[in-house]
TrEMBL record:
<dbReference type="InterPro" id="IPR045244">
    <property type="entry name" value="PGM"/>
</dbReference>
<keyword id="KW-0460">Magnesium</keyword>
<keyword id="KW-0413">Isomerase</keyword>
<dbReference type="InterPro" id="IPR005844">
    <property type="entry name" value="A-D-PHexomutase_a/b/a-I"/>
</dbReference>
<dbReference type="InterPro" id="IPR016055">
    <property type="entry name" value="A-D-PHexomutase_a/b/a-I/II/III"/>
</dbReference>
<dbReference type="InterPro" id="IPR016066">
    <property type="entry name" value="A-D-PHexomutase_CS"/>
</dbReference>
<dbReference type="GO" id="GO:0005975">
    <property type="term" value="P:carbohydrate metabolic process"/>
</dbReference>
<dbReference type="GO" id="GO:0000287">
    <property type="term" value="F:magnesium ion binding"/>
</dbReference>
<keyword id="KW-0479">Metal-binding</keyword>
<keyword id="KW-0597">Phosphoprotein</keyword>
<dbReference type="InterPro" id="IPR036900">
    <property type="entry name" value="A-D-PHexomutase_C_sf"/>
</dbReference>
<comment type="similarity">
    <text>Belongs to the phosphohexose mutase family.</text>
</comment>
<dbReference type="Pfam" id="PF02878">
    <property type="entry name" value="PGM_PMM_I"/>
</dbReference>
<protein>
    <recommendedName>
        <fullName>phosphoglucomutase (alpha-D-glucose-1,6-bisphosphate-dependent)</fullName>
        <ecNumber>5.4.2.2</ecNumber>
    </recommendedName>
</protein>
<dbReference type="Pfam" id="PF02879">
    <property type="entry name" value="PGM_PMM_II"/>
</dbReference>
<dbReference type="GO" id="GO:0005829">
    <property type="term" value="C:cytosol"/>
</dbReference>
<dbReference type="InterPro" id="IPR005845">
    <property type="entry name" value="A-D-PHexomutase_a/b/a-II"/>
</dbReference>
Length: 544
């Protein structure tokens, strides 16, 4: 066992995107690719030397190999202790929980989240800071700069270690502890939610649920929490065994990819409640009987009902949502007199607001909701929040949401994704939109009058850091909105996202199908961005 220094060449494509560095597995397998990025983390995060690191991932293909490599680089870089989830598994929220609970110096999470897994699919890596949250832009930029000048990395020459037995081993001077992936996280959930009350709901015999782990990391967490600690019937968790290629599926909890779950909510034997989470367990989809809750509505309903939930009954400080997320939560915040923030896409922008106690709850339209309990979005947490709410209110999901609309208005919402389009075409489309922005306010498009049009920029109210070009917003009189932005998590070409929101305050018009309520806005968006002409696409790849 000896430390060696390996000469390497920089790669020029290691800039982290919305949530870490994501590439095809094959790219990560090219010589020194992963090693360079990991060494750049250690070169820029000096507290890790002599410190404690948390390490784990979503179990996708290459997870175990990457963990062995990272452990050996950590040992050669003088990390004194590494906490590794058993089997190399840690959901993103569990990693955040463990980073915080044991006051560590940060964590490395291996995941490409909702992207497919397997030898020809995606892999990802990101660094989380000691607050448990994704590294802010200043940190990811420093890591990126380092990757562009890196000339060598240090690694311990040693065979792979056993990742599947709890307990401690040594790698050179470094203590490696294989820890229970689930326990700390499950314990935290018991502090936040009324488990007795939820258990009574399951024991009542009239309440049924399915949770779809989508063959991804949440399976063991959901089984322990729902079936063991809360007494839900065995079989409540489906697709609960993590697999390296997520059963060949797309671990993205939406109506398209979680269709097996959707079927449980339909027909004569429909369950009362259903939910799913993504590859790394930070996203959630909430369904009632024949009823889909949009993620933006889910956040708004949570804000309105937080006082009913044990961990939040003392009151919440405020709420934040990412810019493309519907303004449903803003309406609740306004009525309750709570501060409300609009941040760029990506969880890293919520960190400062949470640390500074400006907000307690936050969310994104992309099936992400969370709170100040950790610094990542949290899929199972959202499911437990809903379960706790259902147990207290003793109403159906549909009743809770439709009553919410009556009180606050309904923000019809949909997102069109155009995946794997040509990068240059996508850039040109955005540039052309930017050029139109100045002329738009005051114009009327198909009967909708434009109130504002801008390229969203954000100044962090805590540290003053500025993030520009975060997406184009076109706002209409009456509260409807169209947003255009390019994805920062894709690994093939560019993905254009078009977010559409139509506000309806009149209860007699709140029960339309979303598609019908959105037709005008869709037309306006397609024309304004010249989507068909510029991308050659006549329809989106996915509608959520
Ligand atoms: C997407 C979502 C964003 C989310 C990010 C990471 O980013 O839009 O809201 O924070 O994925 O989620 P983008 O840049 O592709 O639009 V996850 O579950 O991948 O950690
Ligand atoms: Co995710």
């Amino acid at each position: 066992m000896k430390n060696v220094t390996i000469k390497t060449q920089p790669y020029d494509d290691q800039r982290p995107g919305t949530s870490g560095l994501r590439k095809k597995v094959k790219v990560f397998q090219t010589p020194h690719y992963l090693e360079n990025f990991v060494q750049a983390i250690f070169d820029t995060q000096s507290d890790l030397k002599g410190g404690t690191l948390v390490l784990g991932g979503d179990g996708r293909y290459y997870n175990r190999d990457a963990i062995q490599i990272i452990l050996r680089i950590a040992a050669a870089n003088g990390v004194s202790r590494v906490l590794v989830g058993c089997g190399g598994l840690l959901s993103t929220p569990a990693a955040s929980c463990i980073i915080r609970k044991y006051k560590t110096d940060g964590g490395i999470i291996l995941s490409a989240s909702h992207n497919p897994g397997g030898p020809d699919e995606d892999f990802g890596i990101k660094f989380n800071t000691p607050n448990g949250g994704p590294a802010p832009e200043a940190v990811t930029e420093a890591i990126y700069r380092r990757t562009k000048e890196i000339a060598e990395y240090r690694i311990l020459e040693t065979p792979p270690i056993d990742l599947d037995t709890l307990g401690e081993t040594r790698l050179g001077e470094t203590r490696v502890e294989i820890i229970d992936s689930v326990k700390d996280y499950a314990d935290l959930m018991m502090e936040l939610f009324d488990f007795n009350r939820i258990r009574m709901l399951f024991e009542s015999g009239v309440f049924t649920m399915r949770f779809d782990a989508m063959h991804a990391v949440t399976g063991p967490y959901a089984t322990e929490i729902l079936e063991v600690r809360l007494g839900a019937a065995p079989g409540t968790v489906i697709n609960g065994t993590p697999s390296t290629d997520f059963g060949g599926g797309h671990p993205d909890p939406n109506l398209v990819h979680a269709h097996q779950l959707v079927e449980f909510t339909q027909g004569a034997n429909a369950v009362n409640f259903a939910a799913a989470s993504d590859g790394d367990g930070d996203r959630n989809m909430i369904l009632g009987r024949n009823f889909f809750v949009t993620p933006s509505d889910s956040l708004a309903v949570m804000v309105a009902n937080a006082h009913l939930i044990k961990g939040y009954s003392a009151g919440i400080n405020g709420v934040a949502r990412s810019m493309p997320t519907s303004q449903a939560a803003d309406r609740v915040a306004e009525k309750l007199g709570l501060p409300c923030f609009e941040t760029p896409t990506g969880w890293k922008f919520f960190g400062n607001l949470l640390d500074d106690r400006k907000i307690t709850l936050c969310g994104e339209e992309s099936f992400g909701t969370g709170s100040d309990h950790i610094r990542e979005k949290d899929g199972l947490w959202a499911v437990l929040f809903w379960l706790n709410m259902l147990a207290v209110k003793q109403q159906s999901v549909e009743k809770i949401v439709t009553d919410h609309w009556k009180a606050f208005g309904r923000n019809y919402y949909t997102r069109y994704d155009y995946e794997a389009i040509d990068k240059a075409d996508a850039e040109a489309l955005m540039d052309s939109l930017r050029e139109k922005l100045a002329q738009l306010p005051g114009q009327t498009l198909d009967g909708y009058s434009v109130e504002y049009a801008d390229d969203f920029a954000y100044t962090d109210p805590v540290d003053g850091s500025r993030s520009e070009r975060q997406g184009i917003r076109v706002g209409f009189a009456g509260g409807s909105r169209i947003v255009f932005r390019l994805s920062g998590t894709g690994t093939e070409g560019a993905t254009l996202r078009v977010y559409l929101e139509a506000y309806e305050s009149d209860p007699s018009k709140q029960m339309q199908a979303t598609e019908a309520a959105m037709t005008d806005l869709v037309d306006i968006a397609l024309k304004l961005a010249e989507i068909e002409q510029r991308t050659g696409r006549t329809k989106p790849s996915v509608i959520t």
